[in-house]
Structure of Putative HMP/thiamine import ATP-binding protein YkoD:
Amino acid sequence: MIDLSNVSWKYPHAEHYTLTNVDLHINAGECVVVCGASGSGKSTLLRLINGLVPHFYDEGDLRGRVTVEGVVTSQADLEAIGRRTGTVQQHPRRQFFTNTVSEELAFAMENFALPVPQIAEQVNADLQILGQNMDVSVPLTSLSGGQQQQVALASSTAHRPRILLLDEPSSNLSTEAIAALRATLERHRAAGMTIVIAEHRLSYLNGLVDRVVIMDSGEISAIWDAERFAATDDAELESLGLRGEVCAAQLATWPAAGLSIADACDVCDVPEGALELRNIECRAGRRTIVAIDRLTLPRATVTALRGSNGAGKSTLARVIAGLRRARGEVRLDGRKLTRGARQRASALVMQDVQRQLFTDTVEAEIELAGRDAARTVAVADLLQAFDLSKLTGRHPLSLSGGEQQRLVIAGSRLAGRPIVIFDEPSSGVDRRHLESIAAHIRSVAADGAVVILISHDEDLLARAADQQITLRALHQGGQPAEERASTAVSSGAHVAL
């Protein structure tokens, strides 16, 4: 089905090969997970299978041979490979070609000239499923990162490929959405589809995958069968830089939600140093997507912002950072902030960090982030802390997803802003670097900033967060939710949504 024979690949202008002498055979109908540290070559291996290497990345050096269903990918055109494969990228927004959910679902089928009745039937079936968890009538750009990932998965399988490739598919998903992802993968596997997943989070894949391929510095260091994977404990996974289950005892130390919104607002005073939101309302057209009566976030504290995909977490972050208009009032240390003032006071690490990379080298990117700040950390120390010292001359867009994530997070430390927001900062990050990111987030809070951590990653939350707030979507499946209420209230934070 899929064969990589002594394959090596070096990207254009790179000093070293990303993959070296890789031999791998994947049988038809197998489910294989590829894991390893950030930058170990997982995404590149997927690009070799779907033909992006060498047809899109066409100036590098490819050695060896890759065949998919007997077709040599370097000699075939992308259409022939595309009919056989569907791909869900780590950041699905990069693979969208249309503006709406229905158009995106139809896009691949239209390109392959499938019959119109078949296209309509498949689109309607997918819309019914997706519509249970999101408003499918809004533009794709209005959906959350997790919702976009669900659309990308549906659109990538709509033309019924025999091979499905997924790059970090759980990175932006809530616990409920991960369960739905697994159910979808089980359905495709039962139908005979060959599935290859590049992933750091492995616990949800136990019992689903046939083999685990472990990458290390561009080479395959080990291959486990399903029994070996099932017998692996968290200690062994951590020793390999992989992600296992979150320790329940860690999460149990979080403050429990105990007060109703009304009680909390009556008895809790605003801390002397805090960010305060009052009567915030953000709309998209006629729909209210975020509505907050009162929310207080103290300085020197990491506040975790939680909620299902589409609950409004990233939208709220953009409102706080002054990147999105909203009614209401935002105050810092008792002083009202205009949108412009909030932009100057905030540092935001987005879900798709590639949108925040502007320069030609890693070192220049760090320098740009701290150009207007009174630096408390030396650039060299920061590069060392985030394991970027050997990458200073690399172009930021040539880095792996996890390396790009660490680069933007490192830059946020230099910015020295009083409000720092991290939106899914552990996406594409391995175990070792997860720990350094958690330590960095806590150090930003220790410097006195208001720190907001948006994440579905229980492991990161357990390591970094002091308190949690859970947002509930105002609309479910395009319909207003039954309640305009808050969920968790802890450590004096209040929210009504």
Observations:
- Residues 175-190 form the longest helix (16 residues).
- The chain has 18 helices and 21 strands.
- The longest strand covers residues 287-298.
- Residues 247-268, 480-497 have pLDDT under 50 and may be disordered.
